């Protein structure tokens, strides 16, 4: 896969030219769906170790701070008189990026000996004693020594390892980007213009050097957890349904949500725990191994950390 996990794996192997690396991506170009991503201190240290710091810092609004800075402000906002109940401070704060910015930076650092194959959707794989045979939707076939499956929550590689599958959590999220300049003109002084905020279950922070405000607004029907998902995982939404879902919340929330021009709605899925992420010649990476709900803001960071840790451990 050509997402953050697969690219991080390729970059982490840049000092291993004796290994033939082939990276397969199902899309016709490497791109990323979704918008914002928060990078916490440990993940940031790893990105630094991969030589990505200078290029990533250039995409931050105020650069990277090394002191204790505001990570997130937490508010109760599901009422008219909302209030802040906690402020989280961490080393460097919580640098926030557009996913595409991280992906593009990783792509620039992929070693020359890594061969990237686009328009290759894996449909099945067969593991034998000494190899793995890959079959792609375009008819191509490839035999490899080891398969690292970073192919997401619907992983094909995971089918070769005992697992209980994935399930719908009963939670959905409205997502959208708001141009900061336009929003500032409408609502000068709005707290989300500068600081990352978590209000009840809405996550808001600036990305792309502060040009956009990333908004993710969660809502849950507990009775639907574990039920089959009988609709698209990602769909277009309307501003009216977003505002209806959060009716009665404090004014700043309504102002924020009403400023999303083209909201989308994402069904949140999760994966039952697995006893192992590896077989003899297949290893799972990222959402393929341990998909997690986005509430801790650590999914992409976890895949970066786990992959580099695996590679360094194996090297030692």
From TrEMBL:
UniProt domain FAD-binding: residue ranges: 1-299
Keywords of this entry: FAD, Flavoprotein, Oxidoreductase
Molecular function via GO: FAD binding; oxidoreductase activity
UniProt KW Cell inner membrane keyword: no
InterPro entries from the UniProt entry: FAD-bd, FAD/NAD-bd_sf, FAD_monoxygenase
GO biological process: secondary metabolite biosynthetic process
Keyword Flavoprotein: yes
PANTHER family cross-referenced by the UniProt entry: FAD-BINDING DOMAIN-CONTAINING PROTEIN-RELATED (PTHR46720:SF3), HYDROXYLASE, PUTATIVE (AFU_ORTHOLOGUE AFUA_3G01460)-RELATED (PTHR46720)
Record's protein name: FAD/NAD(P)-binding domain-containing protein
